[in-house]
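Ticket reopened. Same input as before:
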Amino acid sequence: KNEVEQSPQNLTAQEGEFITINCSYSVGISALHWLQQHPGGGIVSLFMLSSGKKKHGRLIATINIQEKHSSLHITASHPRDSAVYICAVEPGEYSGGGADGLTFGKGTHLIIQP
Amino acid sequence: DTGVSQNPRHKITKRGQNVTFRCDPISEHNRLYWYRQTLGQGPEFLTYFQNEAQLEKSRLLSDRFSAERPKGSFSTLEIQRTEQGDSAMYLCASSFGVQVGSTDTQYFGPGTRLTVL
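Engineering reply: fixed in the latest deploy. New output:
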């Protein structure tokens, strides 16, 4: 079983399109992270959120705790946004976790074509 | 550069050999994590330290794996008697994490890519 499911697994879009990547999880969490990984392995943290919505530039992340679902949106997408986007959760106190490491989804491979 | 650094960046070894990786976290970060990532998969948690104390170990961390953070600063991850299945990217991350149970942004290093022949 995979506690964190992402969709779609692969997404190809044209420059300028609005992008949505979805993440569903099955355990109680203390926080959810959205990460970006470029070819070669480097991982950058985009957002950490436990409720509501956060925005940074063209990126928006939302989370619905009751539905155990989060989305990452990219507005006015650009070829430089091409990367793997990974959703990861920190298990909550009552899920056998605490300050444990993250549980990751498999990632969404995004390609933005010019 | 004051980010998380890892050495070496690449390691090729023969099956049965021992390897050791080093991670230098962002200074003043109390928490340090080790993850492993195989091709096409998301990273998997291995272990983490709160200062020098190793607080959690994944069941993925067999007896051949050992991690240390002796002075609460840098950390080493050693794999003994390497197997071909150990081939992966080993990622280190750090966070401020003052209190056990708190949640903080994790900052990742570039990773060490291990190939076991």
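The mean pLDDT of chain B is 91. The interface with chain A takes residues 31, 33, 35, 37, 40-48, 50, 55-56, 58, 89, 91, 93, 97, 100-108, 110-111, 113 of chain B (CB under 8 Å). Please confirm and we'll close it.
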